[in-house]
Amino acid sequence: MRMAVLLSGSGRTLDNFHERIQAGTMQGSIQVVISNSPEALGLEKARNYGYPAFHGSDNGAINAIIADYDVDLILLAGFLKLYQPPADLVRNVINIHPSLIPSFCGAGYYGMHVHRAVKKRGVKVTGCTVHFANEVYDEGPIIVQQAVVVADDDSPDDIGHNVFAQECQAFPAAINRVHDLGIDYFWK
Description:
CATH topology of the largest domain: Rossmann fold
CATH architecture of the largest domain: 3-Layer(aba) Sandwich
Number of domains: 2
Mean pLDDT: 96
Helix content: 25-40%
């Protein structure tokens, strides 16, 4: 599958994708990387990896860039805006969320906001969810979930570190699963 990667920050997930594609453990190829932030470190990393990399200030600009590439999947890799894809790719957007949906999800729940809420609530298991994205935050069909045990003395930073370690496994596994089963399988 040919993929566009959308990011807003440092590109840690892009690093993971690149390493796994190079190692042959993740299906697909990255065609283009786009950030809504012109200074995102992830754009510099993308260029260093040899991927075309662009700033797109809004959905229209992002979709205009994507239109120049042959793309099967759009991967939201730490993309912090609600994304609206072009009509022909509306069911082809995959996101990763740092909790086990339906817990700690929806508007305002991203990154450390999730891990602080997990700590405050005192849950014993959190994790990450890779899912297809739709027009509502964190409501599309789930592809893969990975659980993370939360120790009583874990800080929100510890929780974030442990969840990200599972994200590095779960997101590539989800891409491989979509590659093997097809997109339509998840939209029943």
